[in-house]
Amino acid sequence: MNSLIAMIPSVLMIVSPILITAIGGMISERAGVVNIALEGLMGIGAFTAATVHYFLEPSTQLSVPIALSAGLAAGLVFSLIHALASVTLNADQVISGTGINLLSIGATAFLAQIIFKMERTAPFRLGMMPGLWGIYPTAWIALVIVLISWFILYKRPFGMRLRACGEHPQAAASAGINVRKMRYIAVMISGALAGLAGGCLVLTQTIQYTIYTINGAGFIALAAVSFGRWLPKGVAGASLLFGTAVALAIYMVNIQSLRFLPSEFFSVMPYIITLITLILFSGKEYAPRAAGQPYERSGS
Amino acid sequence: MKKNTTSFIYKALASDAYVSIFVVILGFLLGTILVVIVGKNPAGMYQAMLQTLTGLDITRGVWNSRYIGEWLTASVPLILCGLSMGFAARTGLFNIGAEGQYIMGLTVAQFVALYFPAVPFLHWLVALLAAGLAGALWGGIVGWMKAKFSVSEVVATIMLNYIAFFFSRWASMQIPGANTYKTPNFPETARLSSPLLEMLTNGSRLNRGLWVALFCVLIYWFVIEKTKLGFELRATGLNKEAARYAGIKVTRSVTTSMLFAGMFAGLAGAAVALGSFNYGRVLAGYDNYGFNGIAVALVGNSTAGGTLASGLLFGMLASAQPLMQSRQIPKEITWIISGLVVVLISLRAGVKMFLDWRARKLAKELKEANHE
């Protein structure tokens, strides 16, 4: 039991980036744009944060927050490609997302070769420091983001408009909402959050960026969005569950009673759970109705 | 004369094949610009590509056919995974799951290679067929879930990719004598290696997988273009409701299509496992052939010939990587080019919007001219 409690900070460390990314993915899909580029956007954020932190670490105390902000900004800028393609040019959202995922691996490794003369960033000395109870500040960042997202989506007119764009864009447009603008904002939020999450991941879990750093965290976040039924509390719960499974796969060697199971058992849990729930919930319409569909202005 | 060129451009934009060629050229152009921006000489990039395609090292004036062999070897799984993605796309499905189907094929091929009696010819043939079957089942599950429970194939295949990956790792490590990265060697009879092809290409790893890929291109073309089944699948892809109205069993089309798609990816797994290795691998990560297959099919417009050609193109990019690195060009430029090509392909809808806009404008002008 003690070992389980001792694991809580590690679990939260792994959950936080998944949760932050999943909230962004949820916002994007709520506005009607499926963003399977989350994985790639996390990679961009992680690369940027790791690089900035490496160079600023010796000279300033504020290196970590600056690196996180840089990761956030990089994710936001990169997500503009997805927004431009899928919102302005009516591109197939899945194809443009796939393209960004491919591009992300290439671009980060390419830049690492240019900047560091190797396929990964040079290791930084110290990442983010854990705070109270050994918990990394990323957990608090994630918590704040969940609360803000819930407040804006459900308590502000802006959130209602955003959700309308994902349910029935034509109706939203006839009520005077600029659907394209809302979708742009939503995609940019998801890009910014994925970039921030990538930064959180690299600064807490490792000491450098490689193309294997993200290792599916973005896809787990994508799964958490549908398992969490596109609701902030659901997505938070799903991320917590999936993050715990990932943490167990890594730390199970420390837990006597679980050692008989292969670590792959825990690694695979998020995906099996999501798959089963997709079948169980089939027929019930939880997904935003217009998610994945380009919005074409009729009669123009 | 100017009018002719512009009208040619508009006609070309309306043709899928020309758009693909245009997009690939644009991708290469952007890649070249990037290489120049970071202060490298793009000539090295193109020399590496030329050497991959022809075996000719232009800087030293040496010719070695091994490079051609390696290029074709790299293209085989890409062509097969492209066929996988393309077959599903023709039925209106987005198969991100080729990676998982590839892994299942690879894993099963390795098991057959290790446990089936070492009978010449039969050994690799059984391994190949079993891998195709395993891939087909893994794809078929998705089709069945889509048809029966209307589960989105995009999310389902992403999940099944990871499930296949972790299953493969776990299963391969159960084999006696396996460690965390490889199993014991399997007998020579399981391998796809072909002395003739090796001799022709100066000892490259080129193997019978090449014939498998070419044979699959033929099957793909025949099923899609020449059979009633293919017609039903295409009709489902073009307009589901109309197909249903015409009496086509849409749900069955979806499952059948995913069975075929999975089979192609499963064969790709076998081609890599039995062609390029003589031991079973415990995968440490994705091989990414499945994901690159998406790019292959998109550029090839999901036609048999187009997929073959674009598979060879992406195979060339992959195979040229070490040659670029040795010329001080970061090899990741090839991934950037692939990514750019996919993003640009996704803009096809934008090209169509532009053509529609232009058609409307022309119609309006015509109307006004008639009024005068």
Mean of all residue-level pLDDT scores of chain B = 87
Summing up helix and strand content along with how strands pair, one would put the structural category of chain B as mainly alpha
Task: Determine the fraction of residues in helical runs of chain A and give it as a percent range.
Answer: over 70%
Q: How many beta-strand runs of chain A?
A: 0
Largest interface: A-B, 50 and 49 residues
Helix/strand order of chain B, N-terminal first = HHHEEHHHHEHHHHHEHHHHH
Mean pLDDT of chain A: 85
Overall geometry of chain B: globular
Provide structural commentary.
The complex is a heterodimer of chains A (300) and B (372). Chain A has 300 residues and is mainly alpha-helical. In chain B, helix 6 runs antiparallel to helix 7. With 372 residues, chain B is mostly helical. The longest helix of chain B is centred in the middle third of the chain and has 28 residues. Chain B has a domain of 229 residues. At the A-B interface, helix 3, helix 4, helix 9 and helix 11 of A face helix 7, helix 13, helix 16 and helix 17 of B.
Helix and strand arrangement:
The complex is a heterodimer of chains A (300) and B (372).
Chain A: H1 2-30, H2 38-56, H3 63-88, H4 93-116, H5 137-155, H6 157-167, H7 169-174, H8 179-205, H9 217-227, H10 232-251, H11 263-280
Helix pairs in contact in A: 1-5, 1-8, 1-9, 1-10, 2-3, 2-4, 2-8, 2-9, 3-4, 3-8, 5-6, 9-10, 9-11, 10-11
Chain B: H1 2-14, H2 16-37, H3 42-54, E1 56-57, E2 62-63, H4 66-90, H5 98-115, H6 122-149, H7 153-173, E3 182-185, H8 195-200, H9 209-226, H10 228-238, H11 240-245, H12 250-276, E4 279-281, H13 289-299, H14 304-319, H15 321-325, H16 333-346, H17 348-371
Antiparallel strand pairs in B: 1-2, 3-4
Helix pairs in contact in B: 2-16, 3-4, 4-9, 4-12, 4-13, 4-14, 5-6, 5-7, 5-12, 5-13, 6-7, 6-12, 9-10, 9-12, 9-14, 10-12, 13-14, 13-16
